[in-house]
Amino acid sequence: MHMPSNPSLLEEIPATVSAENYEPVWTVGGITYLFESLYLKNTFEKRDFLLTNCNREHTVYISKSEKKRLSEEGFKLIYQDLDSYERKVESRLEENGKALDTILQQNLSPLTNAELAENFRQAGVLFTQMWNDYFWTEHFHTDKVADILERRDAFVDLKRLQSNVDRMGRLKWLQRERNLNRTFMPGGLLDKYMGEISKRLDLRQPVDRYHYKELIDLLYGKPVEIPNREVYAKGKFSGWKDVVGDAARAIIEKLSYLEPGISQLEGRVGNRGKYRGRVRKINFSAETDYDQEIEAMRVGEVLVSGSTGPELILACKKAGAIITDEGGVTSHAAIVSRELNIPCVIGTKVATKVLENGDEVEVNADVGVVRILSKAVKH
Asked: In whole angstroms, what is the distance from residue 365 CA to residue 267 CA?
């Protein structure tokens, strides 16, 4: 096992915080403490997750025991209870969209600080509700479903299960496309409030390093002191309290270490097929200029990303194959690759950390394996 560069810090880290017990769920760039304080509430915080953030690179890990529990819950939801979930989500899509339109169009400047605080609190309730609904589409719910479909188990109606997987994928897409991207992407809900609050308050740290409740307290004139959250970790292991500084770095180092010289990646089959081509990596980040990245991509390159969503649909259409760090059978990458009939390997966990633009790879999506044939020459 790889040890942190400062072994004495291990004393501050519970022994259960290890790569043996936790596996990565996703890494997203440009994600802030403020965003996390809203989207983690009521779902992730009730489960055994762990997250790290270093300079706005946000990584979520899940304990293997929690993943097993959620896989069982996900199978029940997708196979038995999808009708009620679908009705709930579809009934909220238009209502939430109108509420977001109102927020994004309103002028916050005439509000008093107390009025702005209440306005922000109400927006936070909407924000959290939408992300709580989306939680049930995440890929850690789909392992059992994927295994059943792969084994062709006879104890379920496979045609119905596959149909429900496609329906869940559609619901995941609709929530992202219509509303969720407008909460955290540039120019969205959080940007609007951060801009207004920053103008009013003399903050000692960047506004996005505050918890939303801390910003509300500050608007009401209450004193708030926060640690330096440039680097932090938290999760069930810490009672969801911040671990900052060198101790957080030690946790990141312990969980994210990769053996050098990796030549092969393994994941799940998103869509079967084989392909050989050059890598085009587009980082999944709130700060990525997707238009620019997609324009630079050549037709037939192998798209590598943390995940794909509405913002990457044009890149998927250019791609000869798709490889993602995350994703399950309901993921956009799996569904769009089936629609485009291109090979796709999902859930490799580390593709974006191992692969670089110009690397030549062989994608064998019949078995979920990616081989690195050659590395790009660095100039």
From this structure: 9
